[in-house]
Design goal:
419 residues, alpha/beta, Rossmann fold, GMP Synthetase, Chain A, domain 3, seven-stranded mixed β-sheet, four-stranded mixed β-sheet, 13 helices, 22 strands, 25% strand
């Protein structure tokens, strides 16, 4: 597919006219879905680099984008048909970057998606923001397969505004993050609504087994998966029938991707949907070595263990935060939690768990779970309720910012006071 072909498909899908062609960079920062789609279609028809921007970044975020553009200099491969679409990613590192994509990476991801789930046409309800890869790709799947896309207001959905799902040969799909799934499962009518979809995709953050078991008990056709902005969304996924039969992994690799593990268990992805590099740089290979660790189960399904750089070493023991978080979520009632290591003179690091103050757990039950289900080195020495719970994307916690706030608070509390 050429960029011009994607532009033609978008123009047909939107039934709109496009403006004049331009080579000036296009920054798309729209809260209204219709305006976002129109702006993206027009930008695609140009010769410009296109940057998707979070409209809630505010002045500081936009200044960072402007500075990035000004400091990048003349791009030696600018105005080619590749790497022209910049999708923002902060990752858990918290540093704003733009992953280069284009019509080829998007098309490869859509082909693999439709083959994996046996869909000829994708019809999607969207509750995730279009500037984020998790919201952008559901729309693109509809565009490239000639399906219908309806963007919904998440707050309205959460409050019970649940639209009907008109009959479609391939049914309807929905993409959510664990926080959204957890909130919908509290409501009987929303739970029934979820069960009407052909597939409900789950990604964006780790989901506890308790949440998954509740979804299975409600017969939600869930498809947990693994993907990144750098791979333009999912590269592995369970099929709903596998999930309902009891599988709790991130599934097999989709046809367009090859997922492997390095010698130390780091997840690597190879395929045509792998990004072209972080703007303004270029990646010359189709292989991405991630910062996530994993394993394969007996079925060959990917099991994501956590981030490679998140390992805590306390008293010489290596502790994987994801394992502690899973226990605190599944058994301790902390639906949202970040486990981290804090410097300690005696132990090197101590384990600390932070959670949103608005989601207060049963403290006695939580402590019992910690004592019963975690080994001594894994047990959090401190439980911190945070008034501010920073996010990097829809429902995805900004782990780096949580850690920074916790460490700043610790330093303030331990700093000697002047007399």
């Amino acid at each position: 597919m050429e960029r011009a072909e994607l532009s033609r498909v978008l123009r047909t899908w939107l039934s709109g006219e496009l403006g004049a062609r331009s080579a000036e960079p296009k920054l798309i920062s729209e809260t209204d879905p219709a305006r976002f789609m129109a702006a993206f279609a027009e930008a695609t028809a140009s010769e410009a680099d296109v940057f998707l921007c979070d409209p809630h970044w505010g002045t500081t975020g936009k200044e960072r984008v402007t500075t990035l553009l000004q400091s990048s200099g003349q791009d030696p491969r600018s105005h080619t048909s590749l790497g022209w679409l910049m999708i923002p990613t902060g990752g858990s590192g918290g540093r704003l970057q733009f992953a280069r994509h284009d019509q080829d990476t998007i098309a490869a991801a859509v082909r693999g998606f439709t083959q994996h789930f046996s869909l000829k046409q994708v019809n999607a309800m969207g509750v995730l923001p279009l500037h984020h890869v998790s919201g952008f790709m559901p729309w693109m799947r509809c565009v490239l397969t000639g399906g219908e896309y309806r963007h919904l207001d998440w707050k309205a959905v959460e409050q019970g505004d649940l639209p009907d799902l008109p009959a479609k040969p391939d049914g309807w799909v929905l993409s959510v993050v664990p926080t959204q799934l957890e909130r919908l499962l509290r409501q009987p009518l929303a739970t029934e609504w979820l069960a009407e979809f052909r597939i409900v995709f789950l990604g964006g953050a780790a989901a506890g087994g308790g949440l998954l078991d509740r979804a299975a008990a409600a017969l939600i056709p869930l498809a947990p998966g693994y993907g990144l902005t750098e791979t333009v969304a999912m590269v592995t996924a369970l099929r709903p029938e596998e999930f309902l039969a009891g599988a709790r992994s991130s599934g097999r690799a989709l046809p367009h991707a090859q997922v492997d593990l390095t010698s130390d268990g780091t997840i690597s992805v190879r395929g045509r949907s792998v990004f072209r590099g972080y703007y303004p740089k270029w990646l010359t290979t189709e292989t991405l070595v991630t910062n996530d660790t994993g394993s394969f189960d007996e079925r060959g399904h990917l099991v994501v263990l956590g981030r490679k750089d998140g390992v805590i070493i306390s008293g010489g023991e290596k502790i994987q935060p994801a394992e502690v978080e899973a226990v605190l979520r599944d058994r301790g009632g902390l639906t949202e939690v970040v486990v981290m290591g804090l410097a300690d003179a005696e132990w090197g690091q101590i384990v600390v768990a932070a959670y949103p103050a608005v989601r207060q757990p049963d403290q006695a039950k939580l402590q019992q779970v910690i004592n019963s289900h975690l080994l001594a080195p894994q047990r959090p020495k401190r439980l911190i309720a945070m008034e501010s719970w920073p996010l990097t994307g829809p429902g995805k916690v900004n782990r780096a910012e949580v850690a920074r706030l916790v460490r700043s608070s610790q330093e303030a509390n331990t700093k000697p006071r002047s007399s």
